[in-house]
Automatic annotation (TrEMBL):
Record protein name field: 2-phosphosulfolactate phosphatase
TM regions (residue ranges): none
SUPFAM superfamilies noted in UniProt: ComB-like
Family annotation (InterPro entries): ComB-like, ComB-like_sf, ComB_archaeal
Species whose genome carries this gene: Methanothermobacter wolfeii (Methanobacterium wolfei)
Family per record: Belongs to the ComB family.
Pfam families to which the protein is assigned, alphabetical: 2-ph_phosp (PF04029)
Keywords linked to the UniProt accession: Coenzyme M biosynthesis, Hydrolase, Magnesium
Catalytic activity of the protein: (2R)-O-phospho-3-sulfolactate + H2O = (2R)-3-sulfolactate + phosphate
Length: 218
């Protein structure tokens, strides 16, 4: 198996894993406990149209919950349920709309499960870091490193750097807590979300994005 790591844009391998640790990946993974599917939408105005069709809609921009929307928050999303959830976020949903291959969604909550699924599904796997508004985000790099370490196989130098960076869990968690994304969420009152996103292997949910929808991989 060959594993590569990229930032923002997919190189079009057999399979990719999108990582947006704070918080889209964890929100999507948690939502699949109570929703059958998730419709990721890049544009906030388009997402707002779903409100008039009585869809539950979650989303944020810059970490702030959009008016009338459910928060892009794993603990908050677990309070809701139904058929399909519409989700729009600053980074994660934007990345999903650009991928050309089948995409899984990975986070620390489902590291083992998403890594095992990737090993079973493809010979080439690309891990895509969503970043923040086109800029590198350390939390996505570190989360990618944990996923790549579990997948194993042949890795490129970028992937190797990510794996080397996650040898000490305490240092990893401290770096994520000190990240600009985490500090912004703390200021907005979502400090608990950061702690939730740091929890490893609390679910076997593996979200898979195909044909414009995210569903649980069975």
């Amino acid at each position: 198996m060959r594993v590569t790591l990229s930032f923002e844009e997919s190189e079009g391998t057999d399979l990719c894993i999108m990582v947006d640790l704070l918080r889209a990946s964890a929100t999507i993974t948690a939502a699949l406990d109570s929703f059958r599917c998730i419709i990721p939408v890049r544009d906030a105005e388009r997402a707002r149209e779903y409100l008039s069709m009585d869809y539950p809609v979650a989303g944020e921009r810059g970490g702030e919950t959009l008016p009338g929307f459910i928060a892009n928050s794993p603990p908050e999303i677990r309070k809701h349920g139904g058929d399909c959830l519409v989700l729009t976020t600053s980074n994660g949903t934007r990345i999903l709309e650009s991928v050309k291959s089948t995409a899984l969604i990975g986070c620390l909550n489902n590291v083992r499960a998403v890594a095992a699924a990737a090993r079973d599904m493809a010979d080439e796997v690309e891990v895509i870091m969503a970043g923040v508004n086109g800029e590198f985000a350390i939390e996505d790099f570190l989360c990618a490193g944990e996923i790549i370490r579990v997948i194993g196989g042949e890795i490129d130098e970028y992937s190797e750097a990510a794996v080397l960076a996650v040898q000490d869990r305490r240092l990893v968690d401290d770096a994520i807590r000190r990240s600009r994304s985490a500090r912004r969420l703390e200021k907005l009152g979502f400090g608990g979300d950061v702690e939730y996103c740091l929890r490893r292997n609390i679910t076997d949910n593996v979200p898979v994005y195909r044909d414009g929808k995210i569903m649980k991989l069975l």
